[in-house]
Amino acid sequence: MSVTRPSFDERLGKHPQLCERFESILVIDEDTAGTIDLADEAERLAISEVRQAARITRYHFEDVELAHSLRHRQQMSVIYWQTLF
């Protein structure tokens, strides 16, 4: 039986901060307001958005790592007593 992977839109919907960054990149790309004059400026703005997305991803990953580490420590904190009688 094959497992169907959720679509990109469904997955992105679970990460609103990343969704905002991708939306911002689309706004830069489309530039419907005509506010970006140079390709270099568009590139700089897009890179800034990608960096922000990377920070969001990093913080999320660190939170997941911390939660995993805490669960592991809780599991390992059980004390086993051994008697020598």
Count the E strands: 0
Please give the radius of gyration in angstroms: 22 Å
What structural category do the secondary elements indicate? mainly alpha
> What characteristic shape results from the CA principal axes?
elongated
Tally the helices: what do you get? 3
Q: Cα distance, first to last residue?
A: 55 Å
- Assign a percent range to the helix content: 55-70%
Largest sheet data: none
Q: Which spans of ≥5 residues are poorly predicted at pLDDT below 50? A: none
Q: What does this entry look like structurally?
A:
- The chain contains three helices and no strands.
- 69% of the residues lie in helices and 0% in strands.
- It has one domain.
- With 85 residues, the chain is an all-alpha fold.
- Helix 2 packs antiparallel against helix 3 (39-76).
List keywords for this structure.
69% helix; 85 residues; mainly alpha; elongated; 3 helices; single chain
Nutshell version of this structure?
This protein is mostly helical and 85 residues long. It has 3 helices and no strands.
Topology (elements, then pairings):
Blueprint: H1 8-13, H2 16-30, H3 39-76
Helix pairs in contact: 2-3
